[in-house]
Amino acid sequence: MKICLNPNLRDPAASGAIITWHSDLVIRIHVVSDVHGEAAALVDSDKGSDLFVCLGDLILYLDYDDPSQGIYAELFGEEHARAYIQARTAGRFEEARELSTAAWARLGVVSPQDRRAAMESHIRLQYESMFNTMPQPALMTYGNVDIPAMWDDYRKPDHRILDAEVFEVSGLRIGFIGGGLVSPMRTPYELEPEAYAEKLDQLGPVDVLFTHIPPDLPQLTYDVVARRFEMGSAAINQYIEKVQPRFHVFGHVHQPLHSRARIGRTECINVGHFHAKKVPYVLELEESDGAAN
Fold it and tell me: What was the pLDDT predicted at 287?
């Protein structure tokens, strides 16, 4: 995978939110998360960047803003999707599961194996579309709704997938952790807190930490539209307190109470809900952001 860095400082007004610490620019990173089926908006989303990063959640099962969209609507219809969304938003997860069981029964699909097969065909169609429009080169990690085993079937030659791994560029160490934590949502890629903490421990010190989920800070985990706290990781808090990377960059919470907070010197940043915003977050790193400084 070849990364070409532009040595020239571009016009900050040409992009969205920018963080700049000093004047000697090393690298501009465009970051997306929670793409949820928005394949068309990925086209040219790397334009003007040195690195493109995707923090996962490529699949759209449910569209909370438009219940007519997503795999559940395709399978069961908009009315079911709307009722299912209402139950989940209200925290009635058992009711949501009962709705799904009844919807599958109406289709004559009973066994878990048959359900997975029916769902997989829709998921694969979305993955094919997403990876066809995903910029190249790209550094990618998984979200909690993603199915890691399928990514290799659709990734392009310059899509580098990183999970519990470090990517080094221009003297900077950039760490990636994919997935989410076990939750009542029962999404495909959820880890026990201990397993997630072990992945963090594998990284060692980094200058920038990329994860799908946020640290466990209430102002970053509360979703003001869904009206609930999403899962944040206390292990991320502990890692940041110990290592103090310059930035921690994540997604997962679509409409957070606050999009930024600090843990020590570390700036924690939610890059936003790409499915809704359709523009990448822009992060500018400089030589002085490296560990040696």
Answer: 61
Angstrom distance (rounded) from CA 123 to CA 37: 10
Q: Is 285 helix (H, G, I), strand (E, B) or coil?
A: strand
Domains and CATH numbers, the chain: 28-58+136-289 (3.60.21.10)
CB of 290 closer than 8 Å to CB of 41: no
Mean pLDDT across the chain, nearest whole number? Answer: 90
Contact 163, 170 (CB under 8 A): no
pLDDT band at 25 (very low <50, low <70, confident <90, very high): low
Omega before residue 137 within 30° of 0, cis? yes
Q: Which amino acid is at 143?
A: G
Q: Tokens representing 15? A: 């992009």
pLDDT per residue as tens digits for the range 164-187: 999 998 889 999 999 999 998 889
DSSP, res 10? P
Q: Rounded to whole angstroms, how far apart are CA atoms 223 and 289?
A: 30
Continuous segment of H or E residues that includes residue 272: none
**Does pLDDT of 93 surpass 50?**
yes
**Under a CB-based contact definition with an 8 Å cutoff, are residues 291 and 28 in contact?**
no
The secondary element (H helix, E strand) that includes residue 223 is strand 222-223
Overall pTM > 0.90: no
Nearest-Å Rg of the Cα atoms of the chain is 19
Quote the longest CA-to-CA distance of the chain.
63
CA separation for the pair 187, 2 (Å, rounded): 33
DSSP letters, 230-257, are PP-BHHHHHHHHHH--SEEEE---SSBS
pLDDT band of residue 286 (cuts 50, 70, 90) is confident
Q: In the prediction, which pLDDT does 2 show?
A: 45
pLDDT at residue 24 greater than cutoff 80? no
